[in-house]
């Protein structure tokens, strides 16, 4: 299924499968839908047979940075605090998800480390028994917390860093500084949060001239740099295709300098990053080609937004709210059905490359990247 191209899907008012979970399903490039009704038992499988085993939890929509591709510089509308799920509420959803076969969990945001007490949340989640608990962070507040997070049960961390040049870093992220983020990477490794991954959003004309520098950085430090294609998820809605640097181009530039070999992924690892090793043994890099080589056909992710909605795709505006269930006596079975309904409503592809594509209403920091 992995190599099937993303089929034509109109995202809104269209000919794609019904989002309700109850309506008729069209046969697609992924084969006929399995059945019409939302299943009430078994694993979290969608209509196209994709099993969902990875939960991304946004713990806050707030952030201390204002990256150009994610948030506006001023006037960010944050959700009132009472709308944000408590740690107990997040843990309860996570526990129900675990019971439905979710094995890995990633904490994100906004900036997860601006949420007070995150170490305690990691501890509560670790008790649920996931195979893997990871964190995506901008790194500005990581150094001081890395050891405590690791002790609480965090296993891995992705640190976002879009430039190795201090001035440019400041231009792209608008706040914060490179030195602090690099020190955070050291601290995370010292705390055992390895292998450390570094997320780089590559934007044409902004930082794409640093691709080879980042590859050198990966080799020098033994960190897995992941080059991410710029996606239409910013708050300012000013994304355009010309800013996307195709991952194939990123790989070609690195390969010219240090030949790369694709890492054979055994079984059906649905991780979005395509992995490559330096042929000379110098380590590994990855590319996330969400725009030019979408991986929707093997997508295994679902998301819990900070304000308590289950979301089946970064690019879908369809959300199944669970906050009221959590606060008004809903049972675990009710929560399980909400998760199932969300997964069942997932479209076969994100549709970025279709003519009818519209950017989702919520930006990356609000959804949880
Ligand atoms: N604040 C944390 C951070 O920056 O790592 C976690 C949340 S952030 C939304 C998660 C990841 O999404 C980061 O690696 C960030 O660079 C990436 N991201 C944000 N907006 C993006 C966009 N428009 N296209 C591609 N990646 C994006
Ligand atoms: Fe904040 Fe992360 Fe978005 Fe940057 S990418 S503004 S650090 S949430």
Q: What order do the helices and strands come in, and which of them pair?
A:
Elements: E1 54-58, H1 87-99, E2 104-108, H2 118-128, E3 132-137, H3 146-152, E4 156-160, H4 166-173, H5 178-190, E5 197-202, H6 211-221, E6 224-229, H7 247-257, E7 260-262, E8 274-278, E9 284-288, E10 301-304, E11 309-311, E12 319-321, H8 323-327, H9 332-344, H10 364-367
Parallel strand pairs: 1-2, 1-10, 2-3, 3-4, 4-5, 5-6, 6-9
Antiparallel strand pairs: 7-8, 8-9, 10-11, 11-12
Helix pairs in contact: 1-2, 1-9, 2-3
Briefly summarize what is shown.
This protein is of the alpha/beta class.
Give keywords:
single chain; 369 residues; alpha/beta; TIM Barrel; twelve-stranded mixed beta sheet; 12 strands; globular; disordered N terminus; binds S-adenosylmethionine; binds iron/sulfur cluster
Explain the overall architecture:
- By secondary structure, the protein is α/β, with parallel strands linked by helices.
- It has one domain (47-367): Aldolase class I (TIM Barrel), CATH 3.20.20.70.
- Helix content is 26%, strand content 15%.
- The protein has a twelve-stranded mixed sheet.
- Helix 1 (87-99) runs parallel beside helix 2, helix 1 (87-99) crosses helix 9 and helix 2 runs parallel beside helix 3 (146-152).
- The longest helix is centred in the first third of the chain and has 13 residues, at 87-99.
- It is globular.
- The protein starts with 53 loop residues before the first strand and ends with a helix.
- S-adenosylmethionine is lined by residues 63, 69-70, 108-109, 111, 136-138, 160, 199, 201, 228, 230-231, 233-234, 364-365, 369.
- The site of iron/sulfur cluster has 13 residues, from helix 10.
């Amino acid at each position: 299924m992995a190599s099937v191209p993303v089929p034509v899907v109109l995202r809104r008012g269209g000919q794609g499968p019904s989002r309700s979970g109850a309506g008729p399903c069209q046969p697609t490039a992924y084969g006929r839908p399995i059945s019409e009704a939302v299943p009430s038992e078994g694993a979290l499988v969608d209509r196209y047979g994709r099993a969902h085993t990875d939960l991304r939890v946004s713990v806050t929509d707030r952030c201390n940075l204002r990256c150009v591709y994610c948030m506006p510089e001023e006037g960010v509308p944050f959700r009132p605090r009472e709308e944000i799920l408590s740690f107990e509420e997040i843990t309860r959803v996570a526990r129900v998800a675990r019971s439905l076969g979710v094995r890995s969990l990633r904490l994100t945001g906004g900036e997860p480390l601006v949420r007070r007490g995150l170490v305690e949340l990691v501890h509560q989640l670790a008790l649920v028994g996931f195979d893997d608990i990871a964190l995506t962070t901008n790194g500005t507040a990581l150094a001081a917390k890395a050891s405590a997070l690791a002790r609480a049960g965090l296993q891995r961390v992705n640190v976002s860093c879009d430039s190795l040049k201090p001035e440019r870093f400041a231009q792209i992220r608008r706040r914060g500084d490179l030195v602090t983020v690099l020190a955070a990477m050291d601290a995370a490794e010292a705390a055992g949060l390895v292998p450390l991954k570094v997320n780089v959003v590559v934007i044409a004309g902004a930082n794409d001239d640093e691709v080879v520098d980042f590859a050198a950085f990966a080799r020098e430090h033994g960190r897995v740099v992941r080059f991410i294609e710029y996606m239409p998820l910013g708050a300012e809605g000013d994304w355009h295709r010309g800013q996307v640097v195709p991952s194939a181009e990123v790989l070609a530039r690195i390969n010219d300098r240090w030949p790369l070999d694709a890492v054979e992924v055994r079984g059906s690892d649905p991780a979005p990053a395509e992995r490559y090793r330096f042929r000379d043994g110098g380590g590994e890099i990855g590319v996330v080609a969400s725009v030019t080589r979408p991986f929707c056909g093997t997508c295994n992710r679902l998301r819990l937004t900070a304000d308590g909605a289950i979301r089946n795709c970064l690019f879908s505006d369809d959300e199944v709210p669970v906050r009221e269930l959590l606060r008004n006596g809903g049972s675990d079975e009710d929560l399980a059905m909400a998760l199932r309904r969300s997964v069942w409503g997932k479209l076969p592809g994100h549709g970025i490359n279709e003519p009818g594509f519209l950017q989702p209403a919520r930006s990356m920091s609000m959804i949880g990247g």
